[in-house]
Every structure is written in C-alpha cells, then in structure tokens.
Amino acid sequence: MKIAVVGCGYVGLVTGACFAGLGNQVICVDRDVQKIGLLKRGRMPIYEPGLEELVKENSKKGSLSFTADLKMAARRSEVIFIAVGTPPRPNGEADLSFVENVARTIAGEIRSYQLIVEKSTVPVQTGERIQQTLARHARKGASFDVASNPEFLREGSAVQDFMNPDRIILGVESKRAKGILMDLYKPLKSTILVTDIKSAEIIKHASNSFLAAKISFINAVSRLCEAAGADVEQVALGMGLDRRIGRHFLDAGIGFGGFCFPKDLAAFIRISEKLGYDFELLKAVQKINEEQKENFIRKIEEAVWNVPSKTIGVLGLSFKPNTDDMRYAPSVDIIEALKEQGANVRAFDPHAMPHARKRLKGVVFCKDSYSVCQGSDCLLILTEWDEFKELDLQKVKKLLHQPVIVDGRNIYDPKKMKALGFRYFSVGRP
Ligand code: NAD
Prior knowledge:
- The protein is an alpha/beta fold.
- Helices cover 46% and strands 14% of the residues.
- Strands 3-2-1-4-5-6 form a six-stranded parallel sheet, with helices on both faces. It has a six-stranded parallel sheet with strand order 11-10-9-12-13-14. Strands 7-8 form a two-stranded parallel ribbon.
C-alpha cells in the first residue's frame, strides 16, 4: 500500500518505518525541515532501540522516504496517517491545531478515494471535526473516509510494541475503510477490535488514564506503607498475583511523567467536563502524582537536613529507562525544586543528556555515574536504567561525600544497602 505518515516523532517515525518493514511504500512527512534533513542522511532525531536499523534498511530498499512536502506526499498516498503532536494547552485541553492544519492542507489534494487515519491521541469527537474540515476544504467530487487507529506503543520499546501489539483498535465507519486497515495490519497477527470512531478515540484516553490511576493507586499505598512500616513491594507482589489485578504498573516511585500520561489524563478530564461529567477519580490521580514528587523532596530534606548549598547527585533524567524523552519527566520538577532551594546539582543520564542540557539550566552534567557521585552529599536515583542497578556500590560509597542515597525507583535492596554502610531512603519500604 502507498502510505503517508504525517509527523516524524516517536509515533510517526516508528509507524512509518514499521509499515515500510511490512512491505508497504511509505513516505514520512514532517514540517521540521531539520528533522527531515537528518532522516534523509540516515540519522535519527530520537533514540529508540531498533529504529535506526529499520529506517536505514528500508530507506536503502526504497520503501521508506522522507519529505517536508505534505501536499506531494498526500497526493501520492492511498492511506494518510496523522501522527502529529497533540500537546496540552494551559487548561489541560489537547491542542488540536496541528491536526487541523494537516487536515486543511491535505483536503485540497484528495481526488479519488483516500483514507485519512488519526493516529495521534485525540479527544473523542475529533474524527467528526477532521471529517468536517476535509469536506469543507476538499475539491468537488473528492472521495474519502476518516478512521481512528490509536497507538499504544511505549517509548523505549516502540518498534517491538508496534510489531507485537496486545491489540489493534480500528475505529471505522465504512466497510471500505475497515477492509483497507484490516489488510494493512494483517501481517501483525494481533487481536483486532473494530469499533466506531468515537469509541476508538475513548479507548485510547481511557487506557492511559487507567494505567496512570494504577500508578497513583500504588503510590498512595506506598504512603500508607511508609506511615505503617510496611513494604510496598511485597504489597504490590501480593496484589499482582491476583490475575484480575496483575503486577504491571504497580511500582511505587516518584510518579509518572512523559509526553503521554500527564497530558492524556488532563485532556480526558477536560473532555469529560465539556461533556458534562466531572471525572473526580482522575483528578485524584493527578493530585497523588504531584504529591509523590513533594514527598520525595521531603525525603531528600530528611536525608541531607538543609538542602541549600548541598551538592546533590542525580542519576537518571529521562521520564523512564530506554528513552531519551525528558518531556514532563519528574526529574525536571525535582531538580528545579532543589535548585530553587539553593542546591548544586550534578547529573547523568545514559541517553537524555542532549535534551537535558537544553531543558535544565545551572546543572553540572557529568560524563558518567561515578563522576556524579564525586563529592556529592547525596545521590538520587530518578530513572531506573539497568546500568544504575549494576553500579559498583563500594566505589559509589568512596566517591560520595556522604554515603547517602535517596532512591525514587526502588532499584536497590534496603538490607544490602544498610549492610554496605549507606543511609538509604526509598519509596514505601522500611
Ligand atoms: P512528537 O512531538 O515526538 O512528534 C510530532 C511531530 O509532528 C513533530 O516532529 C512535529 O514537527 C510534527 N508536526 C507537527 N505539525 C506538523 C504538520 N503540520 N505537518 C507535518 N509534521 C508536523 O510526538 P509523538 O510523541 O510522536 O506523539 C504524536 C501523537 O501520538 C500524540 O498525539 C501523542 O499523544 C500520541 N502518542 C504518543 C506516544 C508516545 O509514546 N510518544 C504513544 C502513543 C500515542
């Protein structure tokens, strides 16, 4: 199939490269000419395991190409995926102006039948808006359908997730659109659920909000464990053995971040409000998530006593491991709060340093974990990268000014840390 994917971010680039890998002719479009320039030279604008190889292989074969010319790409394609950003407005609502721009631009290019698919995470009823926009700006006699195909890939394992999804959701309103998307996804051999467009749109927001709620739930339980002297890891294990609950997303920590959960949660609350329903449950999920960071700052204060002029070492900046993404990372709020109190911050992340340098001012960025430890009064773990789990802790202890670790991701065993002579603070564990 001839496909255009609009937006070369985490979702668009992975979608484009994977569809090309599945035997389609794909053209990826981005309005960011620098990004397109990089991609044309075989360089990746983002870090994602396996992506570079897939892009290079398919570019070489001629099944994957890149352009900033949306109109040309739209004219040449049977299916157009919209995978542009839907960032939050200050009131939490999703900003759909990028989606609208794409719809307006491609409308005039539609001649014979084309299928326009929303891949971006959008509020329910956006499909109708896209349909109206296309109809308003299309030429006479143009024929098209709109469909919703929300994406569930996770950054850090995006290619793997795209190729092996738990389910594929197709929100369609015509047999023709259904047939095209079923054909396109056939090679993935996954469960395909066909729904109407609005239900597909809600499935995405409801899924992310539910996962965020699971994280806030265990974080709330961790507070209780701290107050009572119980161990949240054992509680999570005990809960997770119940198949109705499951162990996933029951890791207490410093709260969720990233480009999806905070914004999708806020957007879902706003859509509900607009539709006349006050989604109080999700407001509590947001509140608990914010409190988790404040609670972590209190732990640091307990660990070092006075924060001003202390040197705090930070390991991990990305919002989760195996990604370079710093958007809405809890590390940003925590580091800014410490800097505001007058701390000196030294930091390292295996992949997020380029983004971190732009995002965080007045931080000393170190070449590795051990240089972060050098002379720090306290070491924080903010992202659970595997390499931090394998550090030589004797060496860490020698390098630190004080052997104090405040672990926001529970990556070490408290008993072992005590035996090694650390003052070790973690989340929800005695
Ligand atoms: P991103 O910010 O990484 O990429 C979006 C890209 O779209 C940018 O490169 C931008 O330049 C481009 N763009 C914006 N307007 C454009 C236009 N008019 N024409 C061409 N290109 C344009 O975003 P992302 O993380 O890939 O997310 C995209 C969508 O997918 C969002 O709605 C997001 O919520 C959703 N989503 C993201 C993830 C994730 O893990 N990142 C997972 C599932 C769904």
